[in-house]
Design goal:
The protein has 177 residues and is mainly alpha-helical. The protein has a domain of 112 residues. The protein has a two-stranded antiparallel sheet with strand order 1-2. Strand 1 and strand 2 form a beta hairpin. Helix 3 crosses helix 4. The radius of gyration is 23 Å and the shape is elongated. The mean pLDDT is 83.
């Protein structure tokens, strides 16, 4: 019979202190956010000011997406630290039978694995969304005037050919594969 775990709450949320520790473990997180410069009063050129206003909504979307990415990372790391088993099978010593996913016998292990997978899926969703917003930011910043639709990111990369931003995008895309 399975032992009851009376003190285990599968939907525990990390405390503020636990969240701070997780975020501090990744010092690059704070560098992901974009600064808002639309309140800068030193704009002397209307075109520069207009471009800053055009880019502001994309910066805002990007920063919101990064906040969700950080939140997903915190939850993923929190559930990982609670214990994720790596063994997917074991041999039963008495019968010799193979037992698949032997660690999923307790509610703790089942719910923790579910919440880890759920959080990590959300992490990748927000990660891909944030990287897509980078292309929109580049479209506005460089006044490329590429219309949204199929192959949008590829069209942006093609129009940036020869610029430093193109090589950075290429390096970034190669690094995450």
């Amino acid at each position: 019979m399975e032992e009851q775990e009376l003190d285990y709450d599968p939907f525990t949320y990390p405390s503020l202190e636990e969240r701070k520790v997780i975020i501090k473990s990744q010092p690059l997180i704070d560098k992901l956010y974009l600064d808002d410069e639309t309140n800068d009063k030193s704009y002397t050129d209307f075109i520069k000011y207009k471009n800053a206003l055009d880019i502001w909504p994309w910066k805002n979307r990007f920063n919101n997406k990064i906040s969700k990415l950080v939140f997903s990372y915190v939850l993923t790391k929190y559930h990982f630290d609670r214990g994720i088993h790596d063994d997917v099978w074991k041999q039963d010593t008495d019968s010799g039978a193979t037992i698949f996913l032997p660690y999923l016998r307790s509610e703790r292990d089942r719910s923790n694995l579910f919440l880890f997978r759920y959080s990590s899926e959300h992490y990748y969703y927000h990660y891909i969304s944030a990287s897509d917003i980078v292309y929109h930011l580049l479209n506005v910043f460089y006044n490329l005037e590429v219309k949204e639709g199929g192959r949008f990111n590829r069209n942006i990369a093609d129009k940036l050919e020869g610029k430093r931003a193109a090589s950075l995008l290429s390096s970034f895309n190669n690094d995450i594969r």
